[in-house]
Structures are given as structure tokens and as C-alpha cells.
């Protein structure tokens, strides 16, 4: 079990947002989290990664056998957790190669030569169909929405997390880019047997992926769970079929 969340309650700015979340993710598994806007998906992602704005009031998050409720973000990253932001921030002056290299060092990854490291970046830039000159720029600075999303996938490729939480990696992507991003995530997962918690509103990205578990969140809780069949159901009926 890479992640085990039990009865998680959490507040944002004194407002109770998570109201008893239970979620288990095994090694190498692909889980999808869907649910209406404001239901708490991003808050859940932040609570797993240790965002300082999220105050856990009850329950437990266990990652790789260790209770991480009070662990700082960098220690969680060292355990193999990775969060792709729904809205990646721009950091002017932070060169991408430097950023990737320092973060990789801080994660205690095995040492590789500069040539190998640059080769790995170039391969991923190519397979993500990013322009090569982008990596000479500041992190996300002036990037298009789609380029920012791909840059997060590049980070996942370089950091090789055990569990990647991907918060809407497909939002704002064009049709081709959705496929490219999905294929890259699949490939990174395959190489490292990584687990993924993928948050999305759209089934399109799932046409290119094989999720084993679907969780639907509403009002701060996981309210429905199932296999891939749940996606078609939600697409057809919406989240609140009774009210239609
Ligand atoms: N810093 C904050 N202070 C107070 N409330 C917040 C804060 N951040 C988020 N919230 C509220 O918490 C609730 C859950 O937000 P969250 O971002 O987790 O939803 P979500 O499920 O990811 O939605 P979406 O699908 O739109 O991304 C929302 O009502 C939101 O307004
Ligand atoms: Mg969100």
C-alpha cells in the first residue's frame, strides 16, 4: 500500500472542506478522482502533499507505511510523493534545468552525469512535444497553459515518484496534447511501476489510459467508487442524476 487515507477531516481557513475521506492506493495502481467543482479534490491533493494551508483535524494519512500527517513537504517528497498543481505557478529567474537538478539532488536520487541528465530532459521534452528552447527559460514564466501542464509531467519524469498526484493534467490541453500527456504519464508509470492519483473532469484522457479504480468525491467525501464503468455513467448522467 503506497497510500492509505483514513477518515480524513481537514479545514482551509477555518472552513471544514474534507469531511471524512477514505482512500487506498496500492503500488503501481492508477486511480481516478472525479467530482463537482469545489467538492474538495484539490484540497485532498494538497493535504496528501502537506500544503501549509490545509489543517488536518481528524484522521490519518499513511504513505509507504508511515503516518505523514505532520511531515513537512520536503520529507513527503523524499518518501516518493509528487503533486502536479492544478494551476502551476510561474517563477521568474528560476531556470528549468537548475530547478530540476537541485530538486533531484534534494530528493537524494542516485547521481548521474550532467550529460545523462540533460539527455533525459531532452528525451522527455521530445516525447512531450515541447519546444526545445523552453528548457532554457524560467520555470513556467510566460508559458502557455498547455506548456505549463506538460512541464509538470516533465518534472514527474525526472523525479520518478512512487505516487504522483496529478491535479487536472488535461485541463486546457488541445486534443493532441491530451493524448501526448496521457501517453507520457503511462510511460513514466510503466518504467517505475509508479502509482498515480489522477484528478480530472473529462473522460477523454481516460481513452488513452487504463484506470483500475474510479472515486467520485462530493462535499468533502468519497461518495461512489467503482471501475471504469463509473466514468461512462457519470458522463451520461452527471453527478446528480436524481435532480435532472
Ligand atoms: N484558501 C482557501 N480558503 C477558504 N476556502 C478555500 C480555500 N481554498 C479552497 N477553498 C474552498 O474549498 C472548497 C474545495 O475546493 P477545492 O479546490 O478542493 O475543490 P475541487 O474539488 O478541486 O474543485 P475544482 O474541480 O473546481 O478544481 C471550495 O469551496 C473552495 O472555495
Ligand atoms: Mg481542483
Account of the 3D structure:
With 244 residues, the protein is α/β, with parallel strands linked by helices. The chain has one domain: Rossmann fold (3-Layer(aba) Sandwich), CATH 3.40.50. The protein contains seven helices and twelve strands. The chain has helices spanning 41-49, 73-78, 96-106, 114-127, 145-159, 175-192, 229-237, and strands at residues 3-12, 15-25, 30-34, 54-63, 66-67, 81-84, 91-95, 138-139, 163-167, 195-199, 213-218, 221-226. Strands 6-9-10-3-11-12 form a six-stranded mixed sheet, with helices on both faces. Strands 2-1-4-5 form a four-stranded antiparallel sheet. Helix 5 runs parallel beside helix 6. The longest helix is centred in the last third of the chain and has 18 residues, at 175-192. The relative contact order is 0.18. The mean pLDDT is 95. Bound molecules: adenosine-5'-triphosphate (ATP) and magnesium ion. Magnesium ion binds next to helix 1.
Describe the protein's topology.
Elements (H helix, E strand, L loop, with lengths): L2 E10 L2 E11 L4 E5 L6 H9 L4 E10 L2 E2 L5 H6 L2 E4 L6 E5 H11 L7 H14 L10 E2 L5 H15 L3 E5 L7 H18 L2 E5 L13 E6 L2 E6 L2 H9 L7
Parallel strand pairs: 3-10, 3-11, 6-9, 9-10
Antiparallel strand pairs: 1-2, 1-4, 4-5, 7-8, 11-12
